[in-house]
Design goal:
alpha/beta; six-stranded parallel sheet; about 200 residues; Rossmann fold; about 35% helix
């Protein structure tokens, strides 16, 4: 039986939100050194601006790999909650990872998809979600039962709270506007990697 949070109004009726605001709301609800993997471009730029944490990993130039990397972290550290932040265009390049997540069933993993129906950082060319493709329907078809559109900001926060408290995997999709990121991630791959490894306790 579904619960009210999982009975969303669907993609077409979901409120168009702001990516930076949604990201701040997510980071603001993290209390226990949860890991957050930010996908390339504006997704990780807004994560960078939302508040630095040693458990944040900011991807540079690896399109479509936020969800696979988040899956790897979740499997390696099953006691740590892990969030992967991804754009619709990037996730569409790696749809096979959804089936892998569904089959491996990591209880501590949630994927948050920021869907503005465009490849915003390369010129706002439309993605498949500008047409008929529905990320939540795709994820459910792959086997991720706890896949849902966030109706609005308060619904998003309730979904994050559930993902923090309940077994996953989860996929939470948000319709977002075309506002650019409010900052840019520092492009120092070695620093970003080492800080994240220290944040996960894998490097002293």
């Amino acid at each position: 039986m579904t619960t009210p949070e999982l009975e969303s109004r669907g993609r077409g009726n979901a409120k168009v939100m702001n990516r930076f605001d949604v990201t701040k709301r997510l980071v603001g609800r993290l209390k226990d050194e949860e890991a957050v993997i930010g996908g390339i471009g504006n997704t990780n730029f807004d994560l960078w601006a939302a508040g630095h944490r040693p458990q944040n990993f900011y991807m540079l130039g690896s399109m479509g790999l936020a969800a696979p990397i988040a899956l790897g972290v979740a499997l390696a550290q099953p006691k740590r909650r892990v969030f992967g932040l991804e754009g619709d265009g990037s996730l569409l390049m790696q749809l096979g990872c959804l089936a892998t997540i569904a089959n491996l069933k990591p209880r501590n993993l949630a994927i948050v998809v920021m869907d503005n129906a465009s490849y915003q950082i390369t010129g706002s060319q439309p993605t498949a979600t500008a047409g008929a493709a529905d990320i939540v329907a795709i994820a459910r078809g792959a086997g991720i039962d706890k896949s849902v559109w966030a109706d609005d900001e308060s619904h998003f926060e309730r979904l994050v709270d559930r993902a923090l408290a309940e077994d996953g995997p989860w996929l939470i999709a948000c319709r977002i506007d075309q506002q650019p990121a409010v900052a840019q991630t520092e492009r120092d791959p070695t620093m970003l990697r080492d800080r994240f490894m220290r944040g996960l306790g894998t490097r002293g």
